[in-house]
Amino acid sequence: MATNCKHKALVIFNIILLSTKLAATDMVDMEHFGQELFYALASTEPQRNQLITPLPLATVLILLRANAEVDSAYEIGDYLGLIGKANEVIQENYDNLLRKMEKTKYFTMSNNISIVTSQIVVDTVKLSIRDTIKVWRTHRICYKAADLTNSGHKTDILLETKMHFNNVLRYSLSSSTRGYFHTHNGDKIEKEMLNHIAEVRYGKVPQLSATAIEVPYSDGNTFLLIFLPHNPMGIRELEKHLKVFPLGSMNSYLRRNRLKLILPKFKTHVKMSVRDGLIELGMGSMFKRLCETTSHIRVGDIVFSSSFGINEQTAGAETFIDDDEATLAKIPEIRVDHPFIFLVKSIRNDIYLMGKIVT
Question: By its UniProt entry, which Gene3D superfamilies does this protein fall under (predicted)?
Answer without folding.
Answer: Alpha-1-antitrypsin, domain 1, Antithrombin, subunit I, domain 2
